[in-house]
Amino acid sequence: MSEALIVIDMQNDFCPGGALGVDGGDTLVRGINARMADFGAVILTQDWHPKGHASFASSHPGANPMEVVEMPYGPQVLWPDHCVQGSRGAQFHTDLNTDRADMILRKGYNPALDSYSAFFENDRRTPTGLHGYLQTRGIDRITLVGLALDFCVNFSAVDAAGLGYDVRVEQALCRGIDTHGSMSAALAGMRAAGATLI
Asked: Are 19 and 13 in contact (CB under 8 A)?
């Protein structure tokens, strides 16, 4: 068992009608469920923010969603409040086959630090624990699907490649936000890091 499917943030708030809905995000669920059967391991990530998280525009008086501000760890897009711990928006899409998951990784729970990547928080130093989990299971190849392609999928792919994994990103099972040119930058960055886009 050397290959895992990592399903990124298939949550209500990232699907149409959610606080940070990605166009077509909900249409991915059936295909993702089908792909789970092709992998020996399936890992789900879940954005899991406390109320008042530093990445929320509402936590910065006078700021608007989608503005970029400088945080102690670097540039940060300010988001609408989303995936608040325990909320309906933070729950996985109802049709996602969560029973197939070997592991559910929650990220973004540090109130002062965002976490796009499944491997590191946005300071690029604090690990989530996923790398250790994959190592102990002997997994060295991963396929990424989910939301959003230009943020959490992108950061996860780049970090995984940097850690030495053979990384594939199935673009047909991803959707992006595309703010401030983020989509083209993400695709170029993933390729440059050594990820295979399929």
From this structure: yes
pLDDT of residue 1: 56
Which of 26, 47, 83, 107 does the annotation list as catalytic?
107
**Which is catalytic among the residues 15, 81, 114, 152?**
152
Instruction: Tell me whether residue 51 is one of the annotated catalytic residues.
Output: no
Asked whether the beta carbons of 118 and 45 are under 8 A apart, the reply is yes
| Residue 86 falls in which region: left (phi positive, over 0), alpha (psi -120 to 50) or beta | left
Q: Are 73 and 62 in contact (CB under 8 A)?
A: no
What is the mean pLDDT, run by run of 10 residues, along the chain of 198 residues?
92 97 97 97 98 97 95 94 98 98 98 97 95 97 97 98 98 92 95 98
Reply yes or no on whether 107 is catalytic: yes
Q: Letter for the amino acid at 132?
A: G
DSSP string, 40-102: SEEEEEEE-BPTT-TTBGGGSTT--TT-EEEETTEEEE-B-S-SBTTSTTTSBPTTS-GGG-S
**Known catalytic residue at 174:** no
| Catalytic residue chosen out of the listed positions 9, 47, 81, 150 | 9
pTM of structure: 0.96
What percent of the residues of the chain are helix, what percent strand, and what percent coil, each to the nearest 5? 25, 25, 45
Q: What is the pLDDT of residue 106?
A: 98
Amino acid 181: pLDDT: 87
Q: Cα(95)–Cα(85) distance, rounded to whole angstroms?
A: 20
